Amino acid sequence: MADSGINDEDFVVEVGAGAGTLTKELAKKAWRVLSYEIDTELSQVLSDIKLEHDNLEIVFGDILKADLSKKIGDKPFKVVANLPYYITTLVIFYFLAMPNLRSITVMVQKEVAERFVANKNTASYGAVTAQLTVYGEPKITRVVSRKLFMPPPNVDSAIVRLDINKRAGVNDYAVLQKLIAAAFAMRRKTLANNLMAGFGMTREKAVELLAKCGIGENVRGETLGIEEFVELANLMTND
Fold first, then answer.
1. What one-character DSSP code corresponds to residue 135?
2. pLDDT in tens, 147-169
3. Which of 26, 97, 140, 163 has the fewest CB atoms inside 10 Å of its own CB, making it the most exposed?
4. What CATH number does the domain located at 2-163 have?
């Protein structure tokens, strides 16, 4: 709870209410809580919690199919979520596309969390890592032992918080995100080859763009940090 920095002025969207343990704590702290849960078998226990908190709204359904604009409007909000591996990235980027998001705090598998905060030139560094840093600097706030859960899972978890501080000096965020995705599309390929495949440009053009940024033609995407991606993306939009 403390990891998310929620206070009595915050509108919170919770994803994955479960049995409502965290939901109750959020409702005690936040101005308003909009909680999503896909498992309707939990309706009774969550309905009981709802009766205790008039600032809590519970919706049973898939967050990725929800029309949040009707619920939130243009109000700033924060996200708190406990996400299974298979939808973690989808849910995070679903929210990151919303201009009124202020922060997102998620509990995920520890290895996924380490991927979110990885440094360039490491095995864990990838497109998701770089794309997240467009929006801010993700941080692991704590590691959660598997022993704290019953029954215990096979892996430890970690809590990651990302305060939204969208990177300045970007000419076109869509081009930047496309560039990052292309750079890691085929990790064994050079960045020049991935630019050719992702943007349909000639080798000569790809090499020329990289040279203008001081990047060699045999460099791979995982060697670039976010500043270099921004510089290259800006050059591409100006070229």
1. T
2. 777 777 788 999 999 999 988 89
3. 97
4. 3.40.50.150
Taking the C-alpha atoms of residue 226 and residue 204, their distance in angstroms, rounded to an integer, is 24
For residue 168, how far is the Cα from the chain centroid?
A: 18
Q: Give me the amino acid identity at 113.
A: A
Confidence of residue 111 (pLDDT cuts 50, 70, 90): very high
Average pLDDT over residues 4-16: 95
- Homologous superfamily of 173-238: rRNA adenine dimethylase, C-terminal domain (1.10.8.100)
The amino acid at residue 49 is I
Would you give the end-to-end CA distance of the chain in angstroms?
Answer: 47
Q: Are 2-163 and 173-238 in the same CATH fold?
A: no
Q: Which amino acid is at 212?
A: K
Say whether 35 sits in a helix, a strand or coil: strand
**DSSP letters for 72-103:** HTT--EEEEEE--GGGHHHHHHHHHT-TTEEE
DSSP-derived secondary structure for 155-197: S-EEEEEEE--PPSS-S-HHHHHHHHHHHTTSTTS-HHHHHHH
- 94-104 per-position pLDDT tens digit: 999 999 999 99
Sorted by where each begins, the domain ranges of the chain are 2-163, 173-238
Q: Is the pLDDT of residue 239 over 70?
A: no
CA contacts within 13 A on the Cβ side of 78: 23
C-alpha distances out from residue 5 to 69, 191, 192, Å: 24, 39, 42
pLDDT confidence bin for 12, thresholds 50/70/90: very high
